[in-house]
Structure formats: structure tokens, C-alpha cells
Amino acid sequence: MTLSVLTAIQESHTEEVIAHVPMEVTLFFTVILVGMIVTLALEEKIHAKKSVIAGTYALICLFLGAVFEILPFGPVIVGGHEIHMPIYIPAIDWGVIAIILGSSLFVDATSKSGLFTWIAIKLTKSSRGDLFNLLIFYGLMTVVFSAVLNNVTAMIIVGSLTAVSLNKLGQNDKLLGFLVIEGLLTNIGGLLTLISSVPNIIIGTAAGINFVEFFISASPYVVVVTALTLVIGMTRFKIKRLSTQADRDTAKQLVDEFDENDGVESQGFFWFGVAMLVLFILTIATTSVLPFIRDLGMGYVALLFAGIMLLKFKSTADRFYQALDWDLLGFFAGLFIVINVMEHAQVLAMIGQGVEQILALGPQLGSAAVLVAAAFFSSVTDNIPLAAMLANIFSELDNVSMSMWWSVVFGANLGGNITPIGSASTLVAVTIIHKHNLHLSFAGFVKIALPFALIQILIAALYVVFFL
């Protein structure tokens, strides 16, 4: 994302703060937001899909937004021209939708080359059939991919590989644990570099933190918490190292029988898939510096590579469209609309004002409190507008220490590990879990993930207060 785009985002949020909305209206919409979260937590009990729940609340919020006259109806300026479109169209973050859509299609089409099966079997053989080693391999891959790509793409790729590995080992009962841990690690990896997530870019730009400084400051925390998350995950999901030599020999004998080339039907298409995957990763990782591509964004890159791979299946491309998780895409569209209305209703501004009051607690206690508050609110709202809001507030104050800025970075990213709607990658992880007919509800995710998140947030607070 370019600096000009970030500036435009922050200016738009500043304008929204200035706009007057009665407090009773803001509180009314806050209750609606809480209602949506509660309804999502009860999705299995009310037998409703996430897309239906979010879509229903989106429709209600749009209608009430019109009733209370808080929505900016009118033309939208695109390319210097006025375009009239429904208010809910620009409310949706189409970049995220494009990333999920394009990445899913790309991974699905590329998998037909046998490449992902080949990678998964190679990793499985390297682990010698020991789930302990395999989880470490996939955990580290998740962090690295999240740092250089984006959380959603990392989760889609790693999740697909994990399912293949565990299926080959006959350990599908461990898939839930692997995917949950990987989902949590995407948000840890998202802390590693300045370009790993949009909140990092927003806060880093506003605070004057460069790429190298960001990496040096964040990497000790990422290393420690990645290791700790893997250790806790192994204990929580009973993923143990093979204890006896007999077990190790049996597992090694099993994986040695695997042939990574079994799924490769065409060597030409396989190597084409290899080239496209490498090029995809490199292009995604360097989107922000590539001429022309940086203006089009990561969503365009994902769609571009999906389109290239679908050319191989041009006569049967519809089967890939049918396999897309439309419930996930519909949910995000509805969620973005709800959050956008909440912005206009000044719900996020109220949150920002509350965080501003926390600054009075002092640099140390205030930093820890800001981090916890940012994490909590990021778990139920979009962390991008929240980061932009806090960046504006902090920029206008004189007593903001560097640890305060880092508190927002850590809080905005780690909040995604509290609920499945806290980040796109954790929701993708839950979606993959459901795809494999494994049971995990909204409340179930929170129950599993909350202990991880609390430990990660506690360590982050200590790290920010005493080391940054």
C-alpha cells in the first residue's frame, strides 16, 4: 500500500471523527455490534451460516444508517470522475476479497499439478513421520510466509499442505490442532516486518519506523512467542515426539514408502506450477515496490496468477468456481459493511477516545493498557480503521512515547488470535477446518485460542514496556 493511499485513509478517518453523531446513536450501534458478535458465537445453535448472520446485520446497519442520516450518500470520486454507486459498495474492502478469491483459485488450480502434494510429502518425509517435527516445520513456514506474503495467502497455502501431510500419515485427528496453531501463528508472523500487515504500515509510517528498525525491534518477540506457541500447542493438542526407537523406525519406514511423484501426472505442468508458485510468492512479497503493480495491490496479483493457472483448465474452470468458499467471501463482505457503518456511527471514534484517556496512566502502564485495549477491540472490529484512528490521535499528541506506538502494532495484530473474526487468516483457518468436516464453533475457537492469546499479549506488554 502506497503512502498516498495511507494518507487518504487516515484523512478519511479524521473527517469521520469531526462529523457529529449524537452519543445515543453511537451507543445504539455499539449494542448492534455486540449483538452481531453474540449471534456469531451462537451460529451453530441457531443453525445459521456466518454469511447469513453478517449479511443480515449489514442490511440492518445500512437501513438504520440511512434512518439516522449518518452515511455519506453521494457520488464517489474514482480516477477524478464522479461515480454514483450504492453506499455499501465502497464499504467493502475489495482488496481482501480479491486476495481470498484469487489465492483460493490459484492454490486449487496449482494443486492439480501435484505440486502441493509433492511439497507436503517432502516435508512429511523430512519429519521422519514424527508429528512433533512436522508441526515445527509447518509452524516456521507459517511465520515466514505470513511475514513475506500476507496472512490469508499464508494460511491458504500452509493449510492445504498440512491436510495432505496428515492424511498421508493417517493422522487426520490432529488436523484441528495443526490448523488452529497455524492460524494463531499467522498473526505472530504478521508482526515480523513493516509490510507484513496494513496496521504495521499505518503505524510504522506515522511513527517514523523504517523497515530495518521494525524488523530488529519485532523479531526477538516473534522468535520467542513462536516457540512458546508451538510448545503450548503441542501440549494442548497432545502432539508428542515419538518416544521409542521402535516407533521412530516404524514411522520412518512408513514415510519412506511415500512417493512424492505419485500425484504428478505431467512433468511439464508440474514444473510450470513450480515456476508460478515461486513467481507468485516473489510478486506478493515485493508488491509494495514493483512499478504499476504496487498501485494495483496484492488482490490484483492473486487474481492475475489465478487467471494464469485457470488458462490450463479454460474449458472446465467452472468447477473451481463451484469449489470456492462463498460463505467465507459473503461473510467478509457483510462484516466490512457493518464495520464501515460503525465507523460512521463513531463507534471506532469512541473507542479511540477511550484509548486516548488511557495515555494519562503514564508511559509504562499506559503502554500496556493501550496494547490490551487495542488487542481487545481488534478482536471484534477491523484492525485497519482502528490503527488509522489511533495513528491520527497519537500524531496530534506531544507525550506519546515510542512504546505507545508499538503497543498499537502488537495489539492490532495479536487481537486476531482472540476470536475467529479478529483476523482474516484465523477465519480462513476455521473455514479449512470446517471444509474437512471437523467441528469448531465460534465459541469453541475462543475457548481454545484465548489461553494462547492471553499469554502472547502478556509477553507483548512486558516486551513493549521494558524493551521498546
Provide a descriptive summary of the structure in words.
This protein has 468 residues and is an all-alpha fold. The protein has a domain of 173 residues. 73% of the residues lie in helices and 1% in strands. It is built from 22 helices and two strands. Strands 1-2 form a two-stranded antiparallel ribbon. A hairpin with a 2-residue loop joins strand 1 and strand 2. The longest helix is centred in the middle third of the chain and has 26 residues. It starts with a helix and ends with a helix. The N terminus is likely disordered.
Average residue pLDDT: 84
Contiguous uncertain segments of 5+ residues:
1-18
Anisotropy-based shape = globular
Q: Order of SSEs, N→C? A: HHHEEHHHHHHHHHHHHHHHHHHH
Helix content: over 70%
Task: Report strand %.
Answer: under 5%
Strand order of the largest sheet: 1-2
How many strands, what sense, and barrel or not for the largest sheet? 2 strands, antiparallel
Counting helices, strands and paired strands, the structural category is mainly alpha
Total strand segments: 2
Q: Give me the number of helical elements.
A: 22
CA-CA gap between termini? 26 Å
Radius of gyration, taken over Cα atoms and rounded to an integer in Å: 22 Å
